[in-house]
Protein backbone atom coordinates (compact mmCIF):
# COMPACT_ATOMS: atom_id res chain seq x y z
CA UNK A 1 0.00 0.00 0.00
CA UNK A 2 2.21 2.76 -1.26
CA UNK A 3 0.66 6.22 -0.87
CA UNK A 4 0.35 8.48 -3.87
CA UNK A 5 2.92 11.31 -4.11
CA UNK A 6 1.82 14.11 -1.81
CA UNK A 7 -0.69 11.88 -0.01
CA UNK A 8 -0.33 10.89 3.62
CA UNK A 9 0.24 7.27 4.63
CA UNK A 10 -2.86 5.28 5.47
CA UNK A 11 -3.71 5.15 9.16
CA UNK A 12 -3.38 1.90 11.10
CA UNK A 13 -7.18 1.31 11.05
CA UNK A 14 -7.22 1.91 7.26
CA UNK A 15 -4.35 -0.52 6.79
CA UNK A 16 -6.03 -3.13 8.99
CA UNK A 17 -9.27 -2.82 6.99
CA UNK A 18 -7.31 -3.30 3.73
CA UNK A 19 -5.50 -6.37 5.11
CA UNK A 20 -8.79 -8.00 6.13
CA UNK A 21 -10.43 -7.15 2.79
CA UNK A 22 -7.89 -9.40 1.03
CA UNK A 23 -9.80 -12.41 2.42
CA UNK A 24 -13.03 -13.91 1.14
CA UNK A 25 -16.28 -12.53 2.60
CA UNK A 26 -16.82 -15.38 5.10
CA UNK A 27 -13.24 -15.15 6.40
CA UNK A 28 -13.54 -11.34 6.64
CA UNK A 29 -16.62 -11.73 8.86
CA UNK A 30 -14.87 -14.36 10.97
CA UNK A 31 -11.69 -12.30 11.44
CA UNK A 32 -13.72 -9.23 12.41
CA UNK A 33 -15.93 -11.21 14.82
CA UNK A 34 -12.94 -12.88 16.50
CA UNK A 35 -11.12 -9.55 16.74
CA UNK A 36 -14.19 -7.93 18.30
CA UNK A 37 -14.52 -10.73 20.87
CA UNK A 38 -10.81 -10.53 21.80
CA UNK A 39 -10.97 -6.71 22.05
CA UNK A 40 -13.90 -7.02 24.47
CA UNK A 41 -11.94 -9.57 26.52
CA UNK A 42 -8.64 -7.61 26.42
CA UNK A 43 -9.55 -3.91 25.91
CA UNK A 44 -6.20 -2.61 27.19
CA UNK A 45 -4.10 -4.93 25.01
CA UNK A 46 -2.09 -3.48 22.17
CA UNK A 47 -2.97 -5.05 18.84
CA UNK A 48 0.24 -5.78 16.93
CA UNK A 49 -0.42 -6.45 13.24
CA UNK A 50 1.68 -8.31 10.69
CA UNK A 51 0.62 -8.89 7.09
CA UNK A 52 3.30 -11.47 6.36
CA UNK A 53 4.01 -13.85 3.49
CA UNK A 54 2.12 -16.83 4.97
CA UNK A 55 -0.23 -15.28 7.52
CA UNK A 56 -2.11 -12.18 8.51
CA UNK A 57 -1.60 -11.91 12.29
CA UNK A 58 -3.02 -9.73 15.04
CA UNK A 59 -1.12 -10.25 18.30
CA UNK A 60 -2.40 -9.13 21.71
CA UNK A 61 0.23 -7.74 24.06
CA UNK A 62 0.25 -5.67 27.27
CA UNK A 63 3.20 -3.73 25.77
CA UNK A 64 4.36 -2.73 22.30
CA UNK A 65 6.79 -5.67 22.30
CA UNK A 66 5.81 -8.74 20.25
CA UNK A 67 7.55 -11.01 22.76
CA UNK A 68 5.02 -9.96 25.43
CA UNK A 69 2.05 -11.13 23.33
CA UNK A 70 -0.08 -13.90 24.79
CA UNK A 71 -2.64 -14.50 22.03
CA UNK A 72 -2.84 -13.87 18.32
CA UNK A 73 -5.33 -14.28 15.54
CA UNK A 74 -3.63 -15.95 12.58
CA UNK A 75 -5.42 -16.14 9.24
CA UNK A 76 -4.62 -17.43 5.79
CA UNK A 77 -6.66 -18.60 2.82
CA UNK A 78 -7.64 -21.91 4.39
CA UNK A 79 -8.67 -20.80 7.85
CA UNK A 80 -8.44 -18.72 10.98
CA UNK A 81 -6.83 -19.78 14.22
CA UNK A 82 -6.35 -18.44 17.72
CA UNK A 83 -2.74 -18.90 18.77
CA UNK A 84 -1.69 -19.20 22.38
CA UNK A 85 1.87 -17.90 22.31
CA UNK A 86 2.85 -19.84 25.45
CA UNK A 87 0.35 -22.61 24.79
CA UNK A 88 2.81 -25.44 25.36
CA UNK A 89 2.86 -24.55 29.07
CA UNK A 90 -0.91 -24.07 29.47
CA UNK A 91 -3.09 -26.68 31.16
CA UNK A 92 -5.16 -28.31 28.41
CA UNK A 93 -7.09 -31.21 29.99
CA UNK A 94 -9.47 -31.47 27.01
CA UNK A 95 -6.64 -31.60 24.45
CA UNK A 96 -7.97 -28.65 22.43
CA UNK A 97 -4.61 -27.13 21.57
CA UNK A 98 -3.01 -28.15 18.29
CA UNK A 99 0.63 -27.91 17.28
CA UNK A 100 3.85 -29.45 18.46
CA UNK A 101 6.29 -26.55 18.77
CA UNK A 102 8.23 -25.80 21.93
CA UNK A 103 6.09 -22.75 22.71
CA UNK A 104 3.03 -21.92 20.59
CA UNK A 105 -0.22 -23.87 20.29
CA UNK A 106 -3.46 -22.96 18.52
CA UNK A 107 -7.09 -23.81 18.01
CA UNK A 108 -8.92 -23.53 14.70
CA UNK A 109 -11.90 -21.22 14.61
CA UNK A 110 -14.93 -21.91 12.45
CA UNK A 111 -16.90 -19.27 14.36
CA UNK A 112 -16.23 -16.56 16.95
CA UNK A 113 -18.74 -18.43 19.13
CA UNK A 114 -15.99 -20.96 19.86
CA UNK A 115 -14.33 -18.33 22.08
CA UNK A 116 -17.33 -18.58 24.44
CA UNK A 117 -16.83 -22.34 24.89
CA UNK A 118 -16.00 -22.84 28.60
CA UNK A 119 -12.90 -24.92 27.76
CA UNK A 120 -11.57 -22.29 25.35
CA UNK A 121 -12.38 -19.53 27.86
CA UNK A 122 -10.38 -21.48 30.47
CA UNK A 123 -7.39 -21.54 28.09
CA UNK A 124 -7.69 -17.78 27.54
CA UNK A 125 -7.91 -17.16 31.31
CA UNK A 126 -4.81 -19.32 31.84
CA UNK A 127 -2.92 -17.44 29.11
CA UNK A 128 -3.81 -14.10 30.75
CA UNK A 129 -2.84 -15.40 34.21
CA UNK A 130 0.53 -16.64 32.93
CA UNK A 131 1.29 -13.50 30.86
CA UNK A 132 4.89 -12.35 31.33
CA UNK A 133 3.61 -8.80 31.88
CA UNK A 134 0.23 -7.79 33.30
CA UNK A 135 -2.34 -5.98 31.19
CA UNK A 136 -3.33 -2.46 32.26
CA UNK A 137 -6.54 -2.32 34.26
CA UNK A 138 -7.85 0.81 32.51
CA UNK A 139 -7.56 2.49 29.14
CA UNK A 140 -7.49 1.21 25.60
CA UNK A 141 -4.65 -0.49 23.76
CA UNK A 142 -3.17 0.84 20.53
CA UNK A 143 -3.37 -0.62 17.04
CA UNK A 144 0.18 -0.92 15.74
CA UNK A 145 1.05 -2.18 12.25
CA UNK A 146 4.40 -3.93 12.72
CA UNK A 147 5.19 -5.12 9.19
CA UNK A 148 3.79 -5.64 5.73
CA UNK A 149 5.39 -8.21 3.43
CA UNK A 150 5.79 -7.10 -0.17
CA UNK A 151 5.11 -10.65 -1.37
CA UNK A 152 2.26 -12.72 0.10
CA UNK A 153 0.43 -15.95 -0.45
CA UNK A 154 -3.13 -15.50 -1.72
CA UNK A 155 -5.57 -14.68 1.10
CA UNK A 156 -8.61 -16.22 -0.58
CA UNK A 157 -9.06 -19.97 -1.01
CA UNK A 158 -9.10 -20.92 -4.66
CA UNK A 159 -12.02 -22.87 -6.12
CA UNK A 160 -9.75 -25.91 -6.50
CA UNK A 161 -8.61 -25.61 -2.86
CA UNK A 162 -11.75 -25.71 -0.69
CA UNK A 163 -11.52 -25.42 3.06
CA UNK A 164 -10.41 -28.65 4.69
CA UNK A 165 -12.79 -30.95 6.50
CA UNK A 166 -12.70 -30.94 10.31
CA UNK A 167 -10.87 -34.29 10.38
CA UNK A 168 -8.24 -33.03 7.94
CA UNK A 169 -7.85 -29.80 9.91
CA UNK A 170 -7.29 -31.69 13.13
CA UNK A 171 -4.42 -33.63 11.61
CA UNK A 172 -2.54 -30.66 10.20
CA UNK A 173 -1.08 -27.67 12.03
CA UNK A 174 -0.96 -24.06 10.87
CA UNK A 175 2.78 -23.93 11.57
CA UNK A 176 2.44 -20.36 12.83
CA UNK A 177 5.69 -18.72 13.74
CA UNK A 178 5.30 -15.71 16.00
CA UNK A 179 7.56 -12.79 15.07
CA UNK A 180 10.38 -12.20 17.53
CA UNK A 181 11.40 -8.81 18.84
CA UNK A 182 11.14 -5.71 16.72
CA UNK A 183 10.12 -6.63 13.22
CA UNK A 184 11.55 -5.21 10.04
CA UNK A 185 9.20 -2.82 8.36
CA UNK A 186 7.42 0.31 9.41
CA UNK A 187 5.35 0.78 12.49
CA UNK A 188 2.14 2.75 12.37
CA UNK A 189 0.23 3.70 15.48
CA UNK A 190 -3.44 4.60 15.76
CA UNK A 191 -3.74 8.26 16.55
- The proportion of residues forming helix, as a percent range, comes to 10-25%
Query: What is the terminal-to-terminal distance?
Result: 19 Å
Q: What is the string of SSEs from the N terminus onward?
A: HHEEEEEHEHE
Mean pLDDT: 83
Globular, elongated, flat, extended or rod-shaped: what is the shape?
Answer: globular
Ranges with pLDDT <50 over ≥5 residues? 165-191
Strand order of the largest sheet: 5-4-3-2-1-6-7
Total helical elements = 4
User: What oligomeric assembly is this protein in?
Assistant: single chain
For the secondary structure, the number of strands is 7
* Biggest sheet character: 7 strands, mixed
Radius of gyration: 16 Å
* Strand composition percent: 15-25%
Q: Strand pairing plus helix content: what structural class? A: alpha+beta
Overall number of domains: 1
Summary of the model, kept short:
By secondary structure, the protein is an alpha+beta fold. Helices cover 23% and strands 19% of the residues.
Architecture overview:
The chain is α+β, with helices and mostly antiparallel strands and 191 residues long. The chain has one domain. 23% of the residues lie in helices and 19% in strands. The protein has four helices and seven strands; from the N terminus they run ααβββββαβαβ. It has a seven-stranded mixed beta sheet, covered by helices on one side. The longest helix has 17 residues, at 25-41. The protein is globular. The two termini are 19 Å apart. Residues 165-191 have low confidence and may be disordered.
Amino acid sequence: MKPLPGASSPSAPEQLRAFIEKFGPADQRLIRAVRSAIRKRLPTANELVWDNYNFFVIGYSPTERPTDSILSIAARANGVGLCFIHGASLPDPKGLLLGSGKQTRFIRLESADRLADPDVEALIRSAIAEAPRPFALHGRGQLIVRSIAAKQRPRRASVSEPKRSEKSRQSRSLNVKQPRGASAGRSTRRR
